[in-house]
Amino acid sequence: MPRYKRLFAYLKPYVPQIVLASFCTMLVAASTLLIAPLAGNAFKAIGDKDFQFLNLTAAGIIGLYFLKGLFTYGQEYLSYHVANKVIIDLRQELYRRLEKLSLDFYGKWHSGEIISRMMNDITTLQTTILTSFTAIVPQTILLIGLIGYIFWLNWRLSLLTFIALPLIVQVIRMFASELRHISERVQQKSADITSHVQETVSQIKTVQSFTMEEAEAAKFKKENDHAFQITMKAAQILSTQSPVIAFLQAIAAVGIVWYGGLEIIGGRLTLPQLISFATALGIMTDPGSTLSKSFTVFQQGMASAKRIFELLDAPVTVLDRPGAKPLPRIAGKVEFADVSFAYEKEPVLENINLTVEAGEMIALVGRTGSGKSTLVNLLPRFWDPRDGAVKIDGRDLREVTLESLRKQIAIVPQEIALFRGTIKENLRYGRPDATESEVINAAKAANAYNFITELPNGFETEVGERGAKLSGGEKQRIAIARAILRDPRLLILDEATSSLDVETESLLREALEKLMAGRTSFIIAHRLYTVEKASRVVVLDNGRIVEVGTHQELLARGGLYQYLSEIQLKNKA
């Protein structure tokens, strides 16, 4: 579907406001059109020395401008209302789409690119919609009315006026085509700059610790300079367009004065009529110039619309199947049956067969890239397996609704990222209806209550962006408390690799034991304590399960697990 047709679909809910705005537009055009004949009448009154008629004409012109102002207010206010509502609807739909898109999408797209399309392109499109309502539509109506009026005055003079019109239209089309292409490049470069800034800010600690400020600044300058070059190409087109069109209009104006004089000499036109004609043409220069610039804005908006619709059209690869049923509260038995998975065409998991009984604690061990994270990401259906099936309590996860599945799972990631807001708001994330006592009990169970209450504002303490105001251990305990409050039947934990002080480590162990008690748990293990406590240890290598057993059993076998354990012990030593 063409982009402009898709945009029109967003206007349908606001047809009443559009109709009313259009009515105001008609009245604006009508009041403007009446000014030209009144101006001619004023000069006629001067020639006839009819001062009473001159006074009435002057009052009529002032009255028309007053009415035009009122109708313009109504037209522009309603236009702003519709345009802003459409943008809000579009932004909301885009946000909802981003929430539903699967992890494979976010693996391909830079966050800065997404943010740029969400903000910059939406803003550009908003300007385009406003321009369409406040400029293109009313000015087009006015222009059509003025053209009809001058043809009524003198069709010969009007034909001469429009000799240059096809050339002007062709020039506008040529500039519009060039500008549409360059606008797409400008928006893309804006997205690149946004990505660079977002990446630098999010990794500022790394940038500063490696003293890479100058190098990053140099890369940013290169991006900025490239953006300047592209923007100046757009400026060159814009700067050339207006004088070229103005020159063509000037040629037409000289021709009109010359031919109009001949018509008066020949008795086919009166001076008041020529003045009315010239007044109408003078009024026409404004809609003509406005439309020229508006079509430029329109082309920029269409370039942004293309980028926005690319996001809206991005496929959701994991979604509820037709007929999917809600998953009742689970016991927690998990089965991987002949599961294989690949990113694009790159195999990651091959023929995984594993049955985990309800309440078991499974430690996943393996080299980097062995498939541990991918395996646990199949449980909440961040991805679906290429072959085989993942089942909970005997039910294929693809046959149940995503919401009912994910509500029974809690994930404590390796890198804890809290949301901007208070500690209480972060604890309630996922369970906003939790009571005050439930929040406090969860904090106590996670050994987070003491440090929270020691803060000046307690549970109302602002955590900062991504929890920047808290230590790593504090953030981990809040994440554990959040998981406890959710009361999941299935737990996924990716242990942090960073070292913690002895006291914090002890508090975390105790909190994790409370969290895992009675729940089926999958832990990507990095600590000896974890694998010793696990019901079973599952060792992965190159996407396959190579060993399964307890910590002691696997050490006795002398396989990969023993080798990895020895390396870890040597590194600690």
UniProtKB/TrEMBL annotation:
SMART domains: AAA (SM00382)
Domain (ABC transmembrane type-1): residue spans on this chain: 19-300
Keywords: ATP-binding, Membrane, Nucleotide-binding, Transmembrane, Transmembrane helix, Transport
UniProt cross-references to CDD domains, sorted A to Z: ABC_6TM_MsbA_like (cd18552)
Primary location: membrane
Positions in coiled-coil regions: none
Cross-referenced InterPro entries: AAA+_ATPase, ABC1_TM_dom, ABC1_TM_sf, ABC_transporter-like_ATP-bd, ABC_transporter-like_CS, P-loop_NTPase, Type_1_exporter
Subcellular location: Cell membrane
Name recorded for this polypeptide: ABC transporter ATP-binding protein
Phylogenetic classification of the source organism: Bacteria, Bacillati, Saganbacteria
